[in-house]
Design brief:
This protein has 255 residues and is an alpha/beta fold. It is built from 8 helices and 11 strands. Strands 3-4-2-1-5-6-11-10-7-8-9 form an 11-stranded mixed sheet, with helices on both faces.
Length: 255
Amino acid sequence: MRKILAATDASRHGQHAVVVARALAQRVHGEYACISVDRDSVPGAPPDPSAEPPERDGTCAVLHGLPGVEIVRYAETWNADLVVMGRHKRTSERPCPVGSVSDAVIRRRIGPSLFVPPEVSAFQRGMIALDGGPRGVAILAPAAAFLDLVGARASVLCVLPDPPPSVDDITTWMDSRSEQVRAQAARLHLQSGPCELQMRHGNPVAEIHQALVECGADLLVLGVRRGGLRGDMGTGYVGRELLKTISCAVLTVPI
């Protein structure tokens, strides 16, 4: 992960994204860029990322058009490894819908995107959420690479459906997906040490919320499916509810 792009605006949340993105780039001795999108100006040709650095003297390159479209277009043209954006703090008691720009970036982006609230500046503990499916397990490698980048401890949480009614003892019941998750998690080699694995059953949203509180994670890694209708974000109801209600930073990884 060598090229970090901050997508910002004049808000406190947008400015915080710039601080986080710059710090990540410095940590890996990589390239850093900053852009903002002016949707009110007459649309023009976006700057060519290969022609000159997008940030000069502490200012951001200004694009024109729809932010959700132009941010992703610039990121892909510049071959950004990570896009960093701000997000509002949310809680289960005070959910907040995902903004239209973040929505569009999640659905269109081909690589990871990091959404950080102002309260989070460093990452000490990251939780990778899985549903046990083969596509979901694919986020383990990029998630581990990011957690190594920021020096955070990692844990994996896999939430599976409740066992069938015929099962008397849940502790002895084995779901075929759990073995795949255990095998993949065991292969992770992180600089921070062994990756903790939790297997749970029940409602994914409730279990992930509870696990985040228990381990004190400041980052949640979610696998997301690209495309879909506006507001869907390709994640299904689990992703939508988590993005509306969790207060920590979120790293979305397309699957």
